[in-house]
Amino acid sequence: MYTRFIRFSPLAICILLTLGALSGLILTDWFLIAAVIFGFLSLVGVNDIIQTRHAITRNYPILGHLRFLFEEIRPEIRQYLIESDDDEVPFSRATRTIVYQRAKDIEDAKPFGTRMRVSESGYQWITHSVKPRHIENSDFRVEIGGPDCKQPYNASIYNISAMSFGALSANAIMALNRGAKAGGFAHDTGEGGISRYHREGGGDLIYELGSGYFGCRNHDGSFNPEKFAMRAGDPQVKMIEIKLSQGAKPGHGGMLPAAKITPEIAEARDIPMGVDCVSPASHSAFDTPIEMMHFIAKLRELSGGKPIGFKLCVGHRREFMCIVKAMLETGITPDFIVVDGKEGGTGAAPLEFANHMGFPLVEGLVFVHNTLRGAGLRDKIKIGASGKLVTAFHIAKTLAIGADWANSARGFMFAVGCIQAQSCHTNRCPTGVTTQDKIRQRALVVPDKATRVANFHRNTMKALSEMTGAAGLTHPGQFLPHHLLVRVTDRDFKVGDEVYPYMPEGFLLREDDDRFGYLNRWQRARAEAFEPIDSGV
User: Fold this and answer.
1) Is the link from the previous residue into 289 a cis peptide, with omega within 30 of 0?
2) Model confidence over 366-414: pLDDT tens digits?
3) What radius of gyration, in Å, describes the C-alpha atoms of the chain?
4) What is the pTM of this model?
């Protein structure tokens, strides 16, 4: 009986207060205000009892709504009041703070030593030299373009990863591209095509070609060579990247409902208004590894010899080996490969895909790097990497284990004002980064945020130059696994060579016993099809 009284007492109190306020209306206007407030709450409570959708409010009228309120603001309470500086959800406050400070061009030094638990398993560090170097120029570059490339691109070793217009707001795209122009680095368009906002800033573009072929498609969604040649011929476009899969949702297509397609999105994607826009899970322009190589050659010809590559989140490792075997059989190689870790992803993705599909960056990168070494192709193909790479240490480690350059999406999102509200898919982004709401976008002031983008890149490269010099090197590309140490237990650590070994050049062609499972998969891979010769992945 007492429990029932507690559950229904808020409703009873509101009804009594409403009646009391109504009886006092002739005395003052305040009674009218009270009557409206408590009358509204009384109606809410009565509706709670008779509704059938929510058991909580049916049993706890009025009071039950507090649960939904606290559930709604739970992420903000955790982020601002509860979580520690080192909790990764998915980026720690300490990491975000570094980005914000570098973007604002203010000091990012920390007093009183590290807060990291250096004696715990998983801690990693870079060895330094007693004879450090001073590096004057931190504008580190890598030339991307294989033997068949006529227009190689001298890229920064740190660039903006793929984020489409539509996923990001117009103001965010403009700020990113202007920042890329000012800082001399590249901006990946994402699979949503090249929008007017990408062009406005004049920054270098990497044109991502997804399975929807946005910007170069026929009405049925198939690839249109003439439209591609026109887009790729733009001097602002420096490289073309075929997206096989992405980290957040590998192997998953998508659909943009007709109601969400604005005239600007339709223009960028070259799609009609009023029709659902489908991104298939796989490409229609090729079906086999050999066909994929011929498609790469076709894009290279249509683009006038610009670097052509592809991006993937590693899944079935044998399938990547099928692609490598097709390279050997056709003699056609991409100019670059971008390895996307499953920890990547700026937009929304199905929970199971985000949590349990695809290889994390480190494991995927090591596999791709060593497979190319085993096939004797590593010197012809550059490797980019993306997946939570926002600090100089992240970049140095990635270069050490096999990459030639690094990309970041969320790092640059933080630079333009993202606060990790994780409401990217709701169109209610509080900072105007991931919304198409014109009023919300207005909060993102393009000139200011473009400066922050350039600052973040410059200061991150400066920090990387200091780490490189401290290790006694002259360029970050000289980092190797032995510069990296990994604690494997509370007492023991291993040198990077043991954890992330470089396999011998040509070992797959010689069919050496590698002890890591490469050879077994290599023998089951074939260039003619992605399907295996026998069962297994």
Assistant:
1) no
2) 999 999 999 999 999 999 999 899 999 999 999 999 999 999 999 999 9
3) 27
4) 0.87
Q: 372 and 381 in contact (C-beta within 8 Å)?
A: yes
What is the helix (H) or strand (E) element at residue 158, kind and residue range?
Answer: strand 158-160
pLDDT, tens digit, for every residue of 259-314? Answer: 677 888 888 888 888 887 778 888 999 999 999 999 999 999 999 999 999 999 99
- Which token pair is 189? 């368009």
Element (H, E) at 100: helix 93-103
Given a contact cutoff of 8 angstroms between Cβ atoms, the answer to whether 305 and 356 are in contact is: no
- For tokens 């991006």, the residue is 311
Contact 179, 457 (CB under 8 A): yes
Nearest to 427 by CA among 211, 276, 259, 189: 259
Residue with tokens 């096939």: 375
3-state class of 495 per DSSP?
strand
Tell the burial category of 439 from Cβ atoms under 10 Å away from its Cβ (0-12, 13-18, 19+): exposed
Bridge partners of 281?
Answer: none
29-68 burial string, b = 16+ CB within 10 Å, else e? eebeebbeebbebbebbeebeeeeeeeebeebbbbbbeee
Structural element, H or E, at residue 312: strand 308-312
Determine the Cα–Cα distance for residues 431 and 417; give it in Å rounded to an integer.
Answer: 6
Q: How far apart are CA 472 and CA 466, in angstroms?
A: 10
Centroid of chain to Cα 377: 27
Residue 214 dihedral angles phi and psi, to the nearest 5° = -65, 130
